């Protein structure tokens, strides 16, 4: 009896432990990664394959490439783009970016930047993401961008991740700075954040059959208890 209780307790403890997995995220060519999950990404250099755990992630990056403009060739650098998304399942993911060859391509990108990007998994399935443009131009220094993104993460933008805002200072109308600090609690799991129906469908489809059955049973029990 004691042995069975001990084995049961060990099994429960194992199931309760978070699963730590590494997902591979491949960045587009000609990408300058500025900020990764609220931190300066300058140390990553030109690295294009990132190893990221499960959960919510946020990238700030720019595209920089040579384009043709009439008979001339010039360097084109985008504004910093912000992408926020969830990764799960120890998979390979790819951020797909537009091919920028001419000034017409860059004009199209500037007019509707989010529509030009997508994130797909190894099966070619698109995963949902939030997107925003940090309204600055030119190739930025990582430290300045980190401060900018921390302030951005305090905003109501869908691409903002408040848990990555850190502590920043904002000037009030009288010119006196005050501190905006985040609560000293662990951030909630990404799945606890409000999400759209399409995102719920995506994560359901990613689960195995056993996990789906447990989820459906939980939904059924929740309806009965009203929780």
Short description:
With 227 residues, the protein is of the alpha+beta class.
How large is the radius of gyration?
A: 21 Å
Helical percentage: 25-40%
Structural class estimated from helices and strands: alpha+beta
Largest sheet: 6 strands, antiparallel
Q: Uncertain runs with pLDDT below 50, 5 residues or more? A: 9-20, 137-143, 169-193
- Total number of helical segments? 5
Mean pLDDT equals 77
What's the β-strand tally?
12
C-alpha geometry: elongated
Question: What amount of the residues lies in strands?
Answer: 25-35%
SSE sequence, one letter per element: HEEEEEEEEHEEHEEHH
Distance between the termini: 34 Å
Explain the overall architecture.
The protein has 227 residues and is an alpha+beta fold. It is 27% helix and 30% strand. Strands 2, 3, 5, 6, 7 and 10 form a six-stranded antiparallel β-sheet that branches. The longest helix is centred in the last third of the chain and has 17 residues, at 209-225. Mean pLDDT is 77; it is low at 9-20, 137-143 and 169-193.
Core attributes:
227 residues, 5 helices
Structural topology:
Elements: H1 2-16, E1 22-26, E2 31-36, E3 39-40, E4 49-53, E5 55-69, E6 72-77, E7 81-87, E8 92-96, H2 103-111, E9 118-121, E10 129-133, H3 142-152, E11 168-171, E12 177-180, H4 197-206, H5 209-225
Parallel strand pairs: 1-8
Antiparallel strand pairs: 1-4, 2-3, 2-5, 5-6, 5-7, 7-10, 8-9, 11-12
């Amino acid at each position: 009896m004691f042995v069975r209780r001990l084995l049961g307790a060990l099994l429960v403890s194992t199931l309760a432990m978070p699963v730590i997995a590494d997902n591979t995220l491949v960045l587009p060519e000609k990408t300058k990664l500025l900020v990764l999950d609220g931190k300066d990404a300058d140390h990553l250099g030109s690295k294009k394959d990132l190893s990221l755990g499960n959960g919510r992630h946020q990238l700030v990056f720019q595209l920089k490439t040579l384009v043709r403009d009439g008979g001339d060739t010039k360097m084109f650098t985008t504004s910093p783009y912000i992408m926020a998304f969830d990764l799960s399942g120890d998979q390979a993911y790819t951020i797909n970016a537009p091919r920028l060859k001419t000034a017409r391509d860059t004009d199209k990108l500037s007019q509707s930047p989010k529509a030009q990007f997508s994130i797909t998994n190894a099966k070619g399935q698109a995963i949902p993401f939030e997107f925003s443009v940090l309204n600055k131009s030119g190739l930025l220094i990582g430290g300045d961008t980190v401060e900018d993104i921390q302030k951005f993460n305090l905003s109501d933008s869908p691409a903002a991740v408040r848990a990555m805002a850190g502590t920043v200072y904002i000037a009030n109308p009288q010119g006196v700075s005050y501190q905006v600090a985040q609560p000293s609690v662990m951030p909630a799991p990404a799945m606890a954040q409000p999400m759209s129906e399409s995102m719920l469908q995506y994560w359901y489809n990613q689960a195995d059959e056993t996990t789906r059955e447990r989820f459906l049973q939980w939904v059924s029990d929740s309806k009965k208890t009203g929780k």
